[in-house]
UniProtKB/TrEMBL annotation:
Active site annotation, chain numbering: 85 (proton donor)
Keywords: Riboflavin biosynthesis, Transferase
Organism of provenance: Bythopirellula polymerisocia
GO cellular component, one term: riboflavin synthase complex
Swiss-Prot/TrEMBL GO biological process terms: riboflavin biosynthetic process
Name under which the protein is recorded: 6,7-dimethyl-8-ribityllumazine synthase
Record-listed (2S)-2-hydroxy-3-oxobutyl phosphate binding positions: 82-83, 124
Residue numbers binding 5-amino-6-(D-ribitylamino)uracil: 19, 53-55, 77-79, 110
Length: 153
């Protein structure tokens, strides 16, 4: 599917978790290279690091409420441990981001890896399963173009 060209007015925010930085930095690099490759100037991209995935929604909400962004890309990596802690974080973050997206009529891209092992995270951050940061940036570009052609809310 061919995407209409950007008009230069688009701004993108990327909220990325510091926790598991060896993984999230690769997701961020994938997202940045995809946006820049599509013609988005680096000056049109705001990157904010937060301590962990749990903190992503509050910063994503700030960007959404500022009405300065065309889309918010949320990147993180939650890896299962010995308890169910990961499940609570994953569910809360995913539901929060969905609510923020709908309440603000703004694409909110879910790039939170929810992996059983570090090996799975490595594979999804540029390994043999691709890079979720790239996928989220591509989806953000597609959604921004799509919403430009949809009736206003």
């Amino acid at each position: 599917m061919e995407r209409p060209p950007l008009d230069g007015s688009e701004r993108f925010a990327i909220v990325v978790a510091e926790w598991n930085r060896s993984i999230t930095a690769k997701l961020l690099q994938g997202a940045l290279s995809t946006l820049v490759g599509a013609g988005v100037s680096e000056s049109q991209i705001d990157v904010v690091w937060v301590p962990g995935a749990w903190e992503i929604p509050v910063v994503a909400q700030r960007f959404a409420q500022s009405e300065s962004c065309s889309a918010v890309i949320c990147l993180g990596a939650v890896i299962r441990g010995e308890t169910s802690h990961d499940q609570h974080i994953n569910r809360a973050v995913s539901l929060s981001l969905q609510q923020i997206s709908l309440a603000n009529d703004l694409p909110m891209l879910f790039g939170l890896l929810t992996c059983e092992t570090m090996e799975q995270a490595i594979h999804r951050s540029g390994g043999n399963v691709g890079n979720k940061g790239i996928e989220c940036a591509e989806a953000a570009l597609a959604m921004v173009a799509l919403l430009k052609n949809c009736p206003p809310a």
